[in-house]
Each structure stands twice: as C-alpha cells, then as structure tokens.
Design goal:
By secondary structure, this protein is of the alpha+beta class. The chain is about 40% helix and about 30% strand. It has one domain (about 10-130): Lambda Exonuclease, Chain A (Alpha-Beta Complex). The protein has a 5-stranded mixed sheet, with helices on both faces. Helix 1 crosses helix 2 (about 35-45). The protein starts with 9 loop residues before the first helix and ends with a helix.
C-alpha cells in the first residue's frame, strides 16, 4: 500500500479510527450517542490521546460572536469529532462538519457514526485552515 504524502495528522487519525473500531467491536450497534461518547473517552484515555469533551467554541460573523458550537470532542486541540448513532448518515451531517471546521478554523474533522451494523468514519480537511 502506497503511503499518502502530507497526510494531515496521520498517526493521530489512525489512533482515533482504531479507538472507534474498538468501541464498536465491544459495544456493537444500537446504543445512544452518549454511550459511545463515554466509551470513546475511555478508549482515548487508554491510548494517551488528549481530548476535551463538548468544549464551547465561539462562532463569529464579521468579528461578532453569534453563537456557540459544542463538538462531541476536540482531540489534541486541533481535530473536531462529531459522533452520531443513526441508521443512515445524510450528506447534511458532512456539510455541517465542514461549516464547523471553517467557523472554528480547526484543520481536521471526523464525522463518526456508530451505526447498527458498522462504524462509518468520514474524515474532512479544512483546506482554508491548512493553507494559512
């Protein structure tokens, strides 16, 4: 397998994915989002991954604070994690994640669905943040 050049946060991305699979393999599908969030926090602690749960991030418009966004996790101060536990993950969830990345100026985000049959992990890069 060919290694991708300049893969943003490659090692940490791998650790996040591994933690998600560990949680889903242990718990299976069908739980509420909060259960997966608590289990994932335990996995992150075991793996030495630095994280904050539901940290308040300010959303600004023309230098005015217009709202607050609370992602499920901020990993290592740079990666947004949004968790879901739904049968189907619509494209709207991805669009919302991209908007959160742009608004917070964080470089990377994961949309993670602990679905009933499998884990669906979607990794998105905020190219505006990365190239500044």
């Amino acid at each position: 397998m060919k290694k991708v050049e300049n893969f943003l946060h490659e090692d940490l991305s791998y650790k996040i994915r591994r933690a998600c699979f560990n949680v889903h393999n242990t718990l299976g599908g069908g739980h509420k989002e909060g259960i997966y969030q608590k289990a994932l926090a335990i996995e992150f602690e075991k793996s030495g991954i630095k994280f904050e749960r539901e940290k308040s991030l300010t959303i600004s418009y023309e230098n005015e604070n217009i709202g607050v966004y609370r992602p499920d996790f901020i990993v290592n101060g740079e990666i947004v994690l949004e968790l879901k536990a739904v049968d189907f993950m619509p494209k709207d969830y991805e669009v919302q994640l991209i908007h959160y990345l742009k608004s917070t100026k964080l470089p990377l985000g994961f949309l993670i669905n602990f679905g009933p049959k499998k884990v669906d992990i979607r990794r998105r890069v905020n190219f505006i943040s990365v190239h500044q």
